[in-house]
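hiii so um. not sure if this is the right channel but i have a protein structure encoded as tokens and i wanna go backwards to a sequence. like what aa goes where. can anyone help
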């Protein structure tokens, strides 16, 4: 994206030989120190994350999909049913690449996530060096700013490395590490190379990292346009570079899976608003770690820069001539400094809107990093140095003392210390391959399902209840989906009542007053109607019959066809054309009500 603006030298900056002489010896001493500053946060989080390494159950959901791809069954959770259980598309395919040479996928997810988290911190610090130390592009299309020889100090970097949830989700097997790396790298490119088509391509990858990071892509691409001010032709080229892969994948998603979003977005109702629950989730994160303390220190340090900020805004909007900093050094570019703050605020607002998550703090971590990027490293002025000292004291206290009250358990409102829960349930300090040595029910279920799979039995497990199955392999219906996916053979069906990988459950109506992220629950009658061959003791046959009839009527029949019928060109086009309506479709989880709604009065007994 080549700028169409005429390059101009920033007023107040030294020029010619004077620029070379100005601070020359000091500047020569700075590169090693700045390199150390970039690497220090990355090394700290690498060590902290390694010490708390683990694999979440949701991480094992990725593992099964990757195993299916490597086995030749396609990007599905269960062979024969096209369901997109992976929220992070790019993370899924990175794990496929790791698995191609035969690497253990769970270990690759844990250690690959840790390395990506560490790389993200290094890229964020490098971006801050370019922002505050000069060398980044001007927001008016001018030449790169001259280097600033001032010392930089870590400020925003101190916040995440002091937070236990950041240590926990540096691994976990989820896409959080990739999100951290993409955010740090995208911001660095926005600061250092805003006019490159390669930058536009990277900025556009947000929705493939996580669907909600489309907000970040939109803000960063808008910032890139404001910085580069490209011609129409260059803007169209940038839009094509940014949108090519996400748009192509969205068309594939609609045609292959028949949905507009990954299935977890359907089951968790990503388009609904649950502000009260979301605010509770925010308090559950901000309260225990006293996040208002570093916030106040940063805001207090920003106040002396207020006049310079208004001057930069006036310069950018054209109401004032370009000006340098008050000391004659280059001022911070406005657009790349504000873009991550806006993106982070939008991310947090979205998390609050949808009601948060059941994993403590996890969904706030990308937004937190975005909010901190402009002050990740700061110049060693009097105000910033005071802020560094204050935040540093808070960071030591937070890392050493501040903890949530429900460590190792599920806390109020259904939010869990997810790593602590799995440490306890596995009776292991670093659970990667879950044995559930501390949770007999899960261990017994896995043992029974694996035994049936090795015997080649045709069986349906409703939790611990074994029935005859309609399919020739093993079908397991269990709420702990990652465990279920590791126990059920790849040619079987690992289903969950919540709907993370089971389209039928995902499209059921949300239940009130249930745990966040677990507020859908498909009754067993539906599973027997859909997959079973016999009735368990005590199950009402009328409800099973009603569920079976409902499955053959209207939108439910179309949902089954979209996800299970052979993928012919005609089926692909039908899936694309019906993706919006299909994604928004919901049905009552009571089979009798669903039968009446799907089939009408003619379907009633």
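sure thing!! here u go:
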């Amino acid at each position: 994206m080549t700028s169409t603006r005429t390059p101009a030298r920033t007023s107040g900056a030294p020029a010619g030989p004077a620029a070379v002489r100005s601070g020359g010896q000091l500047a020569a001493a700075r590169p090693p120190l700045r390199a150390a500053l970039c690497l220090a946060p990355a090394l700290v989080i690498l060590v902290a994350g390694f010490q708390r390494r683990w694999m979440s159950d949701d991480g094992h959901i990725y593992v099964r999909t990757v195993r299916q791809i490597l086995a030749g069954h396609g990007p599905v959770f269960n062979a024969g049913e096209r369901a997109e259980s992976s929220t992070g598309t790019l993370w899924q395919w990175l794990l496929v690449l790791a698995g191609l040479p035969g690497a253990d996928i769970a270990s690759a997810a844990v250690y690959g996530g840790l390395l990506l988290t560490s790389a993200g911190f290094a890229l964020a610090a490098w971006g801050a060096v370019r922002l505050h130390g000069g060398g980044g592009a001007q927001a008016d299309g001018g030449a790169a700013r001259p280097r600033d020889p001032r010392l930089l100090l870590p400020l925003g970097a101190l916040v995440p490395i002091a937070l236990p949830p950041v240590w926990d989700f540096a691994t976990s097997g989820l896409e959080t590490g990739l999100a951290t790396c993409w955010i740090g790298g995208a911001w660095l490119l926005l600061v250092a190379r805003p006019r490159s088509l390669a930058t536009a391509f990277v900025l556009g990858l947000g929705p493939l990292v996580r669907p909600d990071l489309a907000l970040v892509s939109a803000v960063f691409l808008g910032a890139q346009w404001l910085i580069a001010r490209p011609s129409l032709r260059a803007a169209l080229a940038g839009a094509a570079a940014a949108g090519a892969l996400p748009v192509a994948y969205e068309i594939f998603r609609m045609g292959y899976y028949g949905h507009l979003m990954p299935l977890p977005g359907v089951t968790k109702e990503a388009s609904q608003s649950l502000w009260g629950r979301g605010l509770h989730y925010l308090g559950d994160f901000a309260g225990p770690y006293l996040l208002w303390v570093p916030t106040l220190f940063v805001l207090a340090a920003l106040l002396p820069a207020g006049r310079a900020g208004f001057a930069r805004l006036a310069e950018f909007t054209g109401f004032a001539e370009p000006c340098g900093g008050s000391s004659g050094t280059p001022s911070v570019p406005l657009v790349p400094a504000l873009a991550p703050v806006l993106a982070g605020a939008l991310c947090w607002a979205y998390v609050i809107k949808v009601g948060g998550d059941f994993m403590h703090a996890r969904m706030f971590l990308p937004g937190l990093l975005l909010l901190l990027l402009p002050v990740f490293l700061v110049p060693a002025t009097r105000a910033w140095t005071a802020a560094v000292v204050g935040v540093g004291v808070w960071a030591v206290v937070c890392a050493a003392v501040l903890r949530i009250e429900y460590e190792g358990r599920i806390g109020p409102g259904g939010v869990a210390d997810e790593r602590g829960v799995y440490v306890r349930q596995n009776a292991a300090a670093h659970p990667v391959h879950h044995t559930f040595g501390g949770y007999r029910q899960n261990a017994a279920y896995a043992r029974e399902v694996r035994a049936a799979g090795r015997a080649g039995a045709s069986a349906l497990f409703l939790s611990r209840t074994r029935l005859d199955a309609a399919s020739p392999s093993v079908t397991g219906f269990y709420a702990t989906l990652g465990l279920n996916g590791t126990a059920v053979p790849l040619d079987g069906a690992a289903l969950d009542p919540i709907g993370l990988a089971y389209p039928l459950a995902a499209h059921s109506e949300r239940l009130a007053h249930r745990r966040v992220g677990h507020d859908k629950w498909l009754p067993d009658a539906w599973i027997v109607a859909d997959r079973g061959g016999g009735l368990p003791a005590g199950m009402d046959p009328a409800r099973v019959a009603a569920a079976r009839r409902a499955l053959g009527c209207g939108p439910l029949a179309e949902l089954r066809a979209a996800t299970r019928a052979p993928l012919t060109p005609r089926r692909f086009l039908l899936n694309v054309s019906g993706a919006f309506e299909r994604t928004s479709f919901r049905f009552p989880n009571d089979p009798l009500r669903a039968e009446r709604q799907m089939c009408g009065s003619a379907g009633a007994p």
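oh and The longest strand covers residues 459-462.
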